[in-house]
Amino acid sequence: MQDAITSIVNKYDLTGKYLDKIAINEISNYFQTGIERIQLTKLINEKTSFFIKEASAQLFSEEPELIRPSGNAYTTRRYAACLRDLEYYLRYATYALIAGNNNILDERVLDGLKDTYNSLCVPIAPTVKGIQLLKEVIINNLQITDLDSKNLICAPFDHMIRSLGENNI
Ligand code: CYC
Q1: 107: which of 10, 17, 157, 166 lies 20 to 30 Å off by Cα?
Q2: Which residues bind (2R,3E)-phycocyanobilin (predicted)?
Q3: pTM exceeding 0.90
Q4: Which residues surround ligand 1 with Cβ inside 6 Å?
């Protein structure tokens, strides 16, 4: 797992370069947003069960076929797997928020996930919608209006949405 600093230093070390202006700016941004990222993570962590409950309720009300007998979230086992997956997305998003870097999402969540989903017929589009709802529920419930804070919270969720939403060639 990499945070903002290790990811920049690793990159520069590969070519044996000193940190230049761009690298220093990125690292400086990591420190400048530090307190904000910690506070946002704290706020999110106080209400994780609520966010999962609310996002899943909205997902199943918008896509009720998921929990009908032919749906992928039908049977309590699969329903539970779905809630658990949403928990994974939320928990890892908070790690990425603290790290100021999305690398942990690629490494521990997204790598190979699409293949797993495809082999189990877990539908990708509603999963993407679930992640999107999770993000919206957090922003709305915590009444985040400041654009910088919003961007910080959205970044890891948008990264997962983009990665899962990409078409395989
Ligand atoms: C299953 N979700 C799985 C599986 C994995 C993950 C590996 C297969 C193994 C298992 O059932 O536990 C996901 N595992 C992860 C992730 C990580 C991990 C992300 C990283 C930490 O270790 N079905 C739907 C909804 C959606 C859904 C749209 C919820 C949003 O219809 C999820 N995932 C879902 C379901 C299963 C699943 C229902 C079980 C599928 C099956 O066994 O038939």
Answers
A1: 17
A2: 72, 77, 82
A3: yes
A4: 66, 72-73, 78, 81-82, 85-86, 88, 108-109, 113, 116, 120, 122-123, 126-127, 130
**Local confidence pLDDT in tens for the 169 residues of the chain:** 899 999 999 999 999 999 999 999 999 999 999 999 999 999 999 999 999 999 999 999 999 999 999 999 999 999 999 999 999 999 999 999 999 999 999 999 999 999 999 999 999 999 999 999 999 999 999 999 999 999 999 999 999 999 999 875 4
Task: For the domain made up of 34-166, give the CATH fold.
Answer: Globin-like (1.10.490)
Residue-range domain boundaries for the chain: 1-32, 34-166
Length of the chain, in residues: 169
- Rounded CA gap, 153 and 160, in Å? 12
CA dist., res. 146 & res. 83, Å (int):
29
